[in-house]
Amino acid sequence: MMNLPHLSFLRSFEAAARHLSFTSAAEELNCTQSAVSNHVRSLEEFIKRPLFVRHPRSLSLTDVGRAYLPSVRHALQEIDAATQSIVLRSHTRTVVVSCPISLAENWLPNVIQGFSQEHPDIALTVHGTIWTDVEPNVSDVSITINHVDDVADGLTRLWVDKLTVVCAPGFTVNGDPLTHPEQLGDAPLIHILGRPAYWEKIAAAFGLEDLNLKEGQRTNVSDLALELAAKSLGCVAVPKSLVRSYVDRGLLVEPLEIDLDSPWAYYAKLQEKSVTPAVRLFQDWLLQMAAETDAVIR
Q: How far is the C-alpha of 202 from the C-alpha of 23, rounded, in Å?
């Protein structure tokens, strides 16, 4: 690669060409007029062409100077933009998270609350998703729900989820409180579209061949299914990670003893390279909270 002129020579030339004055250029660059003049003279010696016509009280560009100026100005703008981008990125204090809506409403708020108490200067933005993630590169941290047999490379499983059945505290089947799996055959079931495996696994685990999987309320949003159950419209099979906040508030109960792995689990796509300090802190916190959730569920 050929030698290039010193960057200070180019900055002095660009400023002097813009102001057509060494003195004004020196004021802008916070240096002396003689320094700017020497920089320009050194640049002229480097390219072996005059860039300015020096008049008694002013400057004008030569033909070479006018031709050279646009390229120099563009190069300096590119350098400034690239430098600013790196500086701002290294100091940014924001984190963008994408997360399935039900998990974002029932688990993520506690994660954000604890993180914000530890790092009040870092702002979080959450994109709630249904079925698919947001557009690529929108999020710093992306949480998705995937079938355990169909997981893309580069994803980190947050915890081993368990299935549970929940209903409202006063929910009854044929006038009796729900206490035995056999009662599910007569109970109104709430179904989550796209997740028939939840009820299918419950039925298989308890040998419930007469479980009605075709009738009942249906929705594609797990959180809405939980709300319907809280209104005593039926019982619903869901991952344990989604019901904790409802159970803690007394809106739902888990009437049956179930130890059954969920066929769907939550995964995070974490950044390893070119990550800001704020994103690194949130990723570490997220994994810590996920480990605590895993311990509670198991």
A: 83
- Confidence band, pLDDT 50/70/90 cuts, at residue 1: very low
Nearest Cα residue to 268 out of 252, 288, 248, 249: 288
Q: How far is CA 91 from the centre of its chain?
A: 17
Q: Cα angle at 217 between 212 and 219, to 5 degrees?
A: 120
Q: Set out the domains of the chain in order of their start, with CATH numbers.
A: 7-91 (1.10.10.10), 94-160+264-297 (3.40.190.10), 163-248 (3.40.190.10)
Q: What is the largest CA-CA distance in the chain?
A: 105
Q: What is d(CA 289, CA 159) in angstroms, rounded to the nearest whole number? A: 10
Please give the Cα distance from 130 to 47 (Å, whole number): 61
Nearest CA to 72 out of 23, 7, 1, 19 is that of: 7
Half-sphere exposure of 35 (CA within 13 A, CB side): 13
Q: Which of 258, 227, 256 is nearest to 163 (CA)?
A: 258
| Mean pLDDT along residues 82-106 | 78
- Unique residue bearing structure tokens 């290294």: 90
Tokens of 4: 């290039």
Q: How do residues 138-181 score in pLDDT, each as one tens digit?
A: 789 999 999 999 888 889 999 999 999 999 999 999 999 999 99
Residue 5, both tokens = 């002129």
- Altogether, the residues listed in the chain come to a count of 298
Predicted structure pTM score:
0.66
In the predicted model, what is the mean pLDDT of residues 44-61?
93
User: Per 3-state DSSP, what percentage of the chain is helix, strand, and coil (rounded to 5)?
Assistant: 45, 20, 35
Structure-token match 């100091």, residue found: 91
Question: Tokens 């040998």 belong to which residue?
Answer: 207
